[in-house]
Amino acid sequence: MNKLAVNFAGVDFKNPVIPASGTFGYGKEYEEFFDLSRLGGISVKGTTEKLRTGNLPPRIAETPSGMLNSVGLQNPGVDHFIAHELPYLMGKNTVIIANMAGSTADGYREVAEKLDQTDVPMIEVNISCPNVKAGGAAFGVSCEGAAQITKIVRAATKKPIMIKLSPNVTNIAEIAKAVEAEGADAVSLINTLLGMRIDIRTKRPILHNNVGGLSGPAVFPVAVRMVWQVANAVKIPVCGMGGISTWEDAVEMMMAGASTVQVGAALFNDPLAAVKIIDGLEKYVEDNHLNSINDIVGAVKPW
Amino acid sequence: MKYTQGCYPIISKTALAKEIYDMTILCPDAAQAAQAGQFINIKVDGFMLRRPISICGIDKEKGTLRIVFEVRGKGTKELSQLAEGDLIDIIAPLGGNGFKFDGYNKAVIIGGGIGNPPMLPIAEHFGTNAKIISGFRNSSAVILQNDFAKTGAQTILCTDDGSAGRKGFVTDALKEEIAKEKPDVIYACGPSVMLKRIVEIARENGIRTQVSLEERMGCGIGACLVCVCRTIRDGEEFYSHVCKDGPVFDGEEVNFDE
């Protein structure tokens, strides 16, 4: 019996480890390092209604124990994704999660309707990208906006939908409850934290977009806290992410209440990070005589 | 594309100039696959992002790759602390597009500052059919002149202040060399302003250029879409990715404007 298997929002994953959208492209590049079928799933690069060229470079800045990015949802558009990227990915024996965003509410509807016509088993809805002016985080930072987009996407597809939440809010649990009430099957969190770096020699922000999203180990404690708060506030399952780079981090995130985890920035440091986390979880389950990795979900014993 | 990730021994390390280091890494698989113009992505303890460093030497028989890098920040400073015998964690070789040699007999090779190291494998290919124009700030920054001379190529050294070689920019030397004998191709790596001017001069003279670009990188393999540069093909401008579509580009296809 596969002790790492999880059923997440009605979808079977062979293990709970999923490379995070935006860090893994459409998977092809990482096939040079390992077999994609090792992964529980892949949240692929976000797709929008039309091609987006993204932001001007520089798009990345290193930070203590982390990084800022301001890619700006560069992608070839949903039609290209469905025609040219998805068919290849669907043959990889791992759960493909189509990550999507729109520049308007109608844009979200359009992309969701198109993805609904495909074989993709799950949709992750990004309402929290900090790097685009229209849409993106604008919807994700209020309960009304988050609920509005969830309702639109819910009406557009019967597939399981997972709403990706922004940490750049006062009370993330309230946002989670708002999307749950509109029919979200799961939530994923956290997207990146809005940050900024300045080159003191040139007085210029390092990112051409001036600000960008912080990820990496630096955000991990914030992510654990938010996952814990959200998991206690909603009944739908939580996919935890934000700074996970080791199997211990994954266990911690699951104990906070995450049923699955996503790994992002760590892949830039070690392209095998996700695979090593899976190996670590296997050993952890054996060493602790667990019947299933599910046994640790929400197992934290708060003081 | 096939690349290797792992820890490999540093078999030699020397300082070439102030804050410029020369390392040779024993990594037979990566050396076998490497081509001129490609780079390696180096993990540095305590830092999130790997450091992309261009390949300065490829010895397929000995199974080694050579890199020459400048200490520019804390990460490269840490990297410079590694010593002979230490292991270095690299992904190599990276870069979907290196320098191309086919169909060219006579080359002018231009390096500006720390843009010089990736030019050495080109010089080795062309030998006496190459002229190498190297530019540096001043004499204390000059590197690789003996290596370039050993290839048999003619070397032309320029410094901004005239403290070594001739005083002036590489572009002045380029114009003179073109006037003497027009090359089939110009290869260049260095600051963006230098590359832009070289491409303009080459265009005026009907010479093709291949330029190696630099941009802040994330994954180094084409997945994260961070390291974009502006390129133009068939009149249409679009973003290319330095790590996967480059780092070498046809100079005519690059938009160097700020």
Jot down its keywords.
heterodimer; A: 303 residues; alpha/beta; 8-stranded parallel β-sheet; 4-stranded antiparallel β-sheet; 9 helices; B: 258 residues; 7-stranded mixed β-sheet; 7 helices; 21% helix; globular
Written overview of the protein:
The complex is a heterodimer of chains A (303) and B (258). By secondary structure, chain A is an alpha/beta fold. Helices cover 31% and strands 20% of the residues of chain A. Chain A has helices at residues 78-90, 105-116, 137-140, 143-156, 172-181, 220-233, 247-255, 266-269, 273-287; strands at 6-8, 11-13, 17-19, 41-43, 60-63, 66-69, 95-100, 122-126, 161-164, 186-189, 193-195, 198-199, 204-205, 212-215, 238-241, 258-263. An eight-stranded parallel β-sheet of chain A has the order 3-16-15-10-9-8-7-4. A four-stranded antiparallel β-sheet of chain A has the order 5-6-14-11, with no helix packed on it. Chain B contains seven helices and 15 strands. In chain B, the strands form three sheets. In chain B, strands 10-9-8-7-11-12-15 form a seven-stranded mixed β-sheet. Chain B has a six-stranded antiparallel beta barrel with strand order 1-2-5-4-3-6. In chain B, α5 (170-180) runs parallel beside α6 (192-204). The longest helix of chain B is centred in the last third of the chain and has 13 residues, at 192-204. Chain B is globular. Chain A binds chain B through residues 22-25, 29-30, 32-33, 45, 53-54, 56-63, 65-67, 69, 71, 74, 206, 216-217, 265, 267-272, and chain B through 1-3, 5, 43, 47-50, 75, 91, 215-229, 238-239, 244.
Strand order of the largest sheet of chain A: 3-16-15-10-9-8-7-4
Number of helices of chain A: 9
Q: Which H/E pattern describes the elements of chain A?
A: EEEEEEHEHEHHEHEEEEEHEHEHH
- The best one-word shape of chain B is globular
How are strands sequenced across the largest beta sheet of chain B? Answer: 10-9-8-7-11-12-15
State the separation between the terminal residues of chain A, measured CA to CA: 34 Å
What portion of the residues of chain B fall into strands of 2 or more residues?
A: 35-45%
% residues in beta strands of chain A: 15-25%
**Radius of gyration computed on alpha carbons of chain B:** 17 Å
Let me know the average pLDDT of chain B. 95
Low-confidence stretches of chain A: none
Q: Largest interface: which pair?
A: A-B, 35 and 29 residues
Number of helices of chain B: 7
Q: Helices and strands of chain B, in N-to-C order?
A: EEHEEEHEEHEHEEHEHEEEHE
Main pleated-sheet profile of chain A: 8 strands, parallel
Largest sheet of chain B: 7 strands, mixed
> What structural class should be given to the helix and strand makeup of chain B?
alpha/beta
Helix content of chain A: 25-40%
